[in-house]
Prior knowledge:
Elements: H1 2-18, H2 30-94, H3 101-107, H4 111-183, H5 186-193, H6 207-217, H7 235-245, H8 254-257, E1 262-263, E2 274-277, E3 283-287, E4 292-295, E5 304-307, E6 314-319
Helix pairs in contact: 1-4, 2-4, 3-4, 6-7
Amino acid sequence: MPGRAARTTALAAVIAATVVSMPSAHAQPADDALKVYTDLTREAEKLSQDHLKAQSDLAAANAAVATATEAEKKALAESEQFRGQVDTLTEASFEGARLTNLSAMLTSSSQQDFLERMQAMQIIAADQNEAVVRLDATLSAAQKARTDATNAASAAEKFAADVSTRKVAMDQQVSTARAKYRSLSAPQKQTLAAPTPKVSVPVPAGAAGLALNFALGEQGKPYVFGSNGPNSWDCSSLMQAAYRAAGVSIPRTTYDQAKVGRAVTRGAVAPGDLVIYYSGQSHVAMVVDATRAVHASTEGVPVKIANIDSIGPISVIRRVVG
């Protein structure tokens, strides 16, 4: 099928463009080998965040479909109610309940009777007009909801395809990075896995302090691409879980975490701030103090404390609360 062939070609192009090739098997100095591994894992982390973002977009689109579908059902139910009211008033009109001014005058037994008949006719006419207007409004609402649902379903279909495409690219890059890790020497692996002394620092009061306390408590746990805890983390899931423990909801991906709260400067960082790294905003750490941050670095490296500026080029710093 032409459509399937086109999608296959596009998928291959995405993977080829995003996956960093496995380096050649020639012997490399230890520092070079570790750098290659770091570069591979950095790209894998970015693709993992891309995949997570696509999943989030798909969930939002599916929720929009459900909301629009429910709105359509409600509008249609209301339209049936007003349709019945219009039908009843129309039948009453044909049965003579809605009299002309002349017939009301001719059949009235008194001036008071005439006034009462006229008032009744006006009430019926007003009720019917209102019912017709509301019927039209509910039908319009149902049509809009149907259009919204159709558009949301179309968007969801595209996001689903995006999820699949990005997962293939992510899986291939993660496999490449893990293969490189397996090729490292034992001393190189020990260098990556070497834990730093666990840091225990006074934390401030409030949500930021509670979040930092949680993150510090996860020191030593492993990093796994896409992991959501509690036994292993990726960079953004650790931040999300830390603030969840403090009763604050933040998004799952680094891209969205880069938008929470408010921006602060490097010189004004405070415990609990989120530091987003790289131009693509694909990594995040949490400020411990003016010089240090805690983060889930990459596979093979435990959650640990590092110098804020040594983790990578800073893109933005966000204060989630306060």
